[in-house]
Each structure stands twice: as C-alpha cells, then as structure tokens.
Amino acid sequence: MSYDEARISELESKIAAVCTSCSHAKWLIGGFQC
User: Fold this and answer.
1) Burial class (CB in 10 A: 0-12, 13-18, 19+), 4
2) pTM, full prediction
3) pLDDT tens per residue, range 5-34
4) Phi-psi region of 9 (alpha: psi -120 to 50; beta: other; left: phi over 0)
5) Which of 3, 32, 5 is nearest to 20 (CA)?
6) Which domain, by its residues, includes 14?
7) How far apart are the first and last CA of the chain?
8) In this predicted structure, what is the pLDDT of residue 7?
9) Which of 5, 14, 17, 34 places its Cα 20 to 30 Å from the Cα of 24?
10) Cβ–Cβ < 8 Å for 34, 21
11) Is pLDDT larger for residue 21 or for residue 4?
C-alpha cells in the first residue's frame, strides 16, 4: 500500500465514522455523502 492509499483509507474511515452516526448517510461512488 502506498502512502497516498494509506492516507485515503484513514480519511475514509474517519468519514465512515461520521457518516454512520448520521442517519441519512449514503455511500456514493468514490465516497460518502451525509
């Protein structure tokens, strides 16, 4: 895994943590939308 991929996955996990706490969160192509 490259450095950029690690940063992206870390960011995604942070976004996922926020979005799972928001009831209208959806997974879109390429990212979450809350």
Assistant:
1) exposed
2) 0.43
3) 999 889 888 877 776 666 666 666 666 665
4) alpha
5) 32
6) 3-33
7) 28
8) 92
9) 5
10) no
11) 4
